Amino acid sequence: MSTDLTVNGRAARVTAEPTTPLLDVLRNELDLKGARYGCGLEQCGACMVLVDGEPVFSCAREVGTVAGHAVTTVEALDGHPLRQAFLDEQAGQCGYCLTGILMSAKALLDRAPRPGRDEIVAALDKHLCRCGTQYRIIRAVERAAARLADGAGR
Amino acid sequence: MSATALPLSLAANPSPAKWVRFDPDRTVHLSVGKVEIGQGILTALRQIAAEELDVALSAVRILSGDTDLAPDEASTTSSLSIEVGGTAVRLVTAEVRVRVLARLAQRLNCAPDDIAVIDGAFYRGGQPTGQDYWSVAPEVDLARAADGATAPKPVAAYRVVGQSAPRLDLPAKLAGAAFIQDMVRPDLLHARILRQPSRGARLAALDEAAIRRAAGGALRVLRHGNFVALLSENETVAQRAAMAAPGHASWENVRQLTPAQQAAAWLVGQPSDDRVIGDPLPPAAGPVVEATYTRPYIAHASIGPSCALAELRDGHLSVWSHTQGVYPLRNALARVLDRKAETISVHHVQGAGCYGHNGADDAALDAAVIATLVPDHCIRVQWRREDEFGFEPLGSAMSVTMRAVVDAAGRPADWTAEIWSGSHVQRPAMGGNLLAHEALPTPAPDPRPTDPTEAAGGGGTRNAIPHYAIPGKRILHHLVPGAPVRTSALRGLGAVANVFALESFMDELAARAGADPVAYRLGLLGNSPRAARVIARVAEMAGWNARGKGGDGRGLGIGFAQYKNRSAYAAVAAEVEVDQEVRLRRVWCAADAGLVVNPDGLRNQLEGGILQAASFTLKEQVTFNATGVGSIDWESYPILRFSEVPEEMTCELVDAPEERALGVGECTLGPTAAAIGNAVAHALGMRIRDMPFTRDRIAAVLLQG
C-alpha cells in the first residue's frame, strides 16, 4: 500500500498507511522537518504546509487524502524573499512557530501580492506565537511583499 | 577586582581553558553554560567574546549547555544570563587576550601595549607580526585559574558590543530542522507516556489489548510501577496508542479538584508558611487605603510540547534535553535513577520557548527512565499538547492585598503588601520532583515547596516592595504549600501579579489624591533618577499630556518597575479601547538596561515580554476539572492572536552605557499588566482588579457601575 503525491515539486511515493497524518509522513518518512508538531488539533499552525497552494494543517490531514496533490513545505522556500524578510526584521524569538507562518504568508502573497496589514493579520490569525513576535512577523510579511512588488524576484 | 567579586559563573569555572579554545580553522571556540531559549543569548555572548578578543563576530563559534564539554553555569533563569554569564565571558576573554599578548610581547621583546589586535592578528607599530591568536595560544597556559583582575576593554572602545547583531540561530529555524524535536539517532524508538493523573494515584487496570488495537501497529507497553510508556518504531503508532491509553486505564487514589480551587481567592486562608519582610509594622496613623488584586494559574504554554532523547550504551546514559540547566538536570537524574552523575551526560538542544520551568526536565526523566529499561536504543519522548497543558508546572495563582497609610498630602506614608501564593520555584535543584519520579516503584518523597530567597530576588514576593520613596514598606508573605497543582517558575515569577497590584494601587492612590498618575509617581522618585527617566520618557512617547478625563471607552495607562528592584528599569504605557472586551491599540515602552550588548535583540525581548504580558492580562487562566487541569488545548486556553496585537508598539532604550548590563527578558511583564489595568480603569472609570480581563469581568464591573 502506497500513496503517490508531489512534494516540493518532486514525485514522492510514500509507504505509510493512508490514514497516517501528513505531518508524520513529511517528518519521518520524507525527512522534511520544517513542518512541526504543536498540537495535533489544527489549533496552532506549527504544522502548516500548502496543498495545491492552500494552507493546510498537516497534523490532522491524512496522507491518503492528498494523493495526487502537490504539497509544499518550508524547505521549498529557499531563496524566497519571505525568508530574507524575516531575517531582515529579525522576526523570531524561539522560532518554533515560524515555518508554519511562512507557509501561510507564502499562500497569501501568491494570492494577493500587495496585501494590507488587515489581510496579513487575517491570513496569519490561525497561527499562534507564544514569544510575542507577531508585530515583527507582520512587518516581515509587509517587507517581503514590497520586495516582490519591486520585482526583486524570488 | 578581588577573587571573591568574580561573577558566580567564573568563580565556579575559573579556568579560561574551560571557556575558550583556538581551533585550527582560525575560529575561537567559546563554551558556555547558559543556553538559548529564544532570547538570543548565544548571539550576545559571541558579541562579548569578539569584542574583548578583537576577532570577527563570525570567527566565534559557541557550544552551550553540555555536561561533558561546557562549564557549569547552573540554570538559565531570572534574566541573569547577560548579567552573570555575560560578565564571566567578558572577564575570561579579556584574561585570555592579556595572557596571549604577554607571551607574544616576551617573544618580540616588547611591551604588550605595543601590540595591536585586528581580526585576531597581531600588529606592532602598524606592521603585521605574522602572528595571531592561533599561532601564539598553544604556548600559553590557559588552564591556570583567572582571578578576574584583568580589566576588560573600556566601553568607549567597543565596536561590536552595542551594535545590533542578527541572531545566529534564526536562519536554521526558518529553513527546517532546528530543534530537539527534529533530532534523529540510530535505533530510535518513539515514546509517549500514559501519565499518572496525580501524585499518589495507583494504576488499577490497563487494557493493553485495547491500546494495541487503537495503535494499529507494533507497540511495546512498558510498565514500571505507575509509570507507563508506549513505545514504537513508528511515531504514528505511539501517538495513537497515547491518544487511546487514558480511556483504557483505571486509576485509584486520584486527587480530586474543584473549580473553586482554580481561583486565587482559594489560596487565602489556607495553611501557610508566613514571613514578614521589610520594615517593622507601623503605628496606625492616618487613613488606611486597601485593595486586593489577583491573577489565576497561568501556563507556560510553549508552542512546541516538551521532548527529550536518551540512550544507555555501555553503562553510560546520554540525555538530550531543552532543559534550562544541564548540570542541575544531571544531578536530578542521578538522584532519581540512583546512578553516579559521572555516568550521565546531558546535552542541551534547543526547543521552543519555555518562559520558565515547563515540561522540559520532566520529559528528560521520562526518556532516561525508559532508556535504562530499554538499553541500546535511542528513546525519543515527545509530549503531546495535552501532556504539556495537563502536566507542566504552572505559574502560581496569587492574591495580593495592598494596604497604605496615607499622609495629609495623599502620599503613601506606609505600605504593606500581603501575598497569598503557591511556590514560584520547584525546580529539581530547589527540592521539587521530576514528574515521573512520583510514578516509579519507589516514588519521590513529598516535595517541600519553598520560594527563592529575597537575596535571589524572591519568588511570590518579587517586586512587591515599591521602588517609590515611602517611609515604611513591608511584605506579609503567605506561602501556601498545599496549592492544588504543581507550581514553579513562570517568566517574572511573582513580579507579574505584584507589579500589576502595586502599580494599579498607585493609580488608585493618585486618584484619591486628585493627582495625575505620572506626576504622582515622579513625586515619589526623587532619589531614583533612572526610574524617573523611563517614566517621563514613556509618558512623552505616549502623549500623556493629551490624555483625557477617561470614562469614554478609551483609556491610557502606565506601569513601571525596576525588575527585582535591582535589575532593568521598564515603564510601559498602553492605550486601550473597551466595549465588551478590551482591545489593546498602542503600546510604548522605555527601558534602561544599562550597557546594551545587542540593541535589536534587546528590543525583541522587550516586545515579546509586552505581548506575552498582554496575553496573560487579557486572556489567560488555567481551569481545573474534577481530577486535574481542564484547559488542555488552545481552545480552552486561548492566548493572544495576531488579530489582537496592537497596531503600534514602540520600545525605546534609554542610553546608560556606563552602567552594568542588565537582563531584560522579564522586566516588561509586570509594567505591561499594570499599564493595561490602568488603561482599562481610565477607559471605564471603574477598575478591574482580577486578571484576566475577560468579557465576563468587564460585564460584571459595568453592572456594578
Structure description:
The complex is a heterodimer of chains A (154) and B (705). In chain A, helix 2 crosses helix 5 (134-149). Chain A is an alpha+beta fold and 154 residues long. Chain A has five helices and five strands. The mean pLDDT of chain A is 96. Chain B is of the alpha+beta class and 705 residues long. Helix content of chain B is 27%, strand content 22%. Chain B has helices at 8-12, 41-53, 81-108, 133-136, 170-175, 208-215, 235-244, 326-337, 360-373, 385-391, 495-512, 517-522, 529-541, 599-618, 669-684, 695-704; strands at residues 20-23, 27-32, 60-64, 115-118, 121-124, 127-132, 188-194, 202-206, 220-224, 227-232, 249-252, 273-278, 288-295, 307-313, 316-321, 344-348, 378-382, 398-406, 412-421, 472-479, 554-562, 569-578, 582-592, 648-653. A seven-stranded mixed beta sheet of chain B has the order 9-10-7-17-14-15-16, sandwiched between helices. The longest helix of chain B has 28 residues, at 81-108. The radius of gyration of chain B is 27 Å and the shape is globular. At the A-B interface, helix 1, helix 2, helix 3, helix 4 and helix 5 of A face helix 5, helix 7 and helix 14 of B.
Provide a quick synopsis of the model:
Chain A has 154 residues and is α+β, with helices and mostly antiparallel strands. Chain A has helices spanning 22-29, 81-88, 98-111, 117-124, 134-149, and strands at 3-7, 10-14, 48-51, 54-57, 70-72.
CATH topology-level name of the largest domain in chain B: Aldehyde Oxidoreductase, domain 4
Radius of gyration of chain B: 27 Å
Spatial sequence of strands, sheet with the most strands of chain B: 9-10-7-17-14-15-16
Count of domain modules of chain B: 3
Can you say what the CATH homologous superfamily of the largest domain in chain B is?
A: Aldehyde oxidase/xanthine dehydrogenase, molybdopterin binding domain
